[in-house]
Amino acid sequence: MKVSWATEQGSAERGNEDFVAAAPGAVVVLDGCGLPLGTDLGCVHGTAWYARSLGTRLLARMLDGLGPQAGPPVGPPEGAHRPGRRPLVARLAGAIADVAASHRESCDLRAPTTPAATVLALRVRGEWVDYLVLADSTLLLDGRRGVEAVTGGPAYAAADPAMAEAAITGTVPVGELDRATLLTDGATRLVDMFGVTDWDGLAKLAADPGPAELIERNREIERTDPRAARWPRNKVHDDATAAVCAF
Predict the structure, then answer these.
(1) Is residue 53 scored above 70 in pLDDT?
(2) Left, alpha or beta for 9 (phi > 0: left; psi -120 to 50: alpha)?
(3) CATH annotation of 2-246
(4) Global pTM value
(5) What is the per-residue pLDDT across 210-243, written as a single tens digit (0 to 9) for each?
(6) Pair 186, 241: CB distance under 8 Å
(7) Is the bond preceding 173 in cis, omega lying within 30 degrees of 0?
């Protein structure tokens, strides 16, 4: 698997609260839930720290036991919502617990504004590709059946490991995929906000000319609406991250 990615902050005032990291056979993309500046998070570290900490711990857990001897799933690889057959859920739950333990003594993790993030994760395991989607980031699977968009629900990863159970997961044969594209919502505005293309077009743009140009196309349209009047939105420019995995 070859991974190419780009990430860009939405504003200089708050920095980039997205996070992306890759290792042989695995990639993670997180979007820290950016609340209005000045919001009391109950946490001395902040949202960017949380996304970075959760992402690095999740990637490390995904790599445990990963290698050429890794076998296929037990039973048919149907993927989502099969009890006991969602290994990335356990990895995410463990990573959430790790981060919570690392700052529980210094921060109030019971605060409703405690740092949280969306999560995208993908790994190659032998002849199979496992994926996980939590909250409103988007995974595009591009293969024999065309482009399939996978977007999660309203649950985010914060301090409760049980929230990992809300993730959408799946397992597909690697031979059925050409590419997989992982996108935070700042990078999907061309489709779900501006309506200038569809998921198929966005997947093509991410592949060629690539993730950086995809983000720039979003910025070009955002700059035509600097007061967020034509397309009402909380942030004129949002953090944007795109990662393309080619198989």
Answers:
(1) yes
(2) beta
(3) 3.60.40.10
(4) 0.92
(5) 999 999 999 999 999 999 999 999 999 999 999 9
(6) yes
(7) no
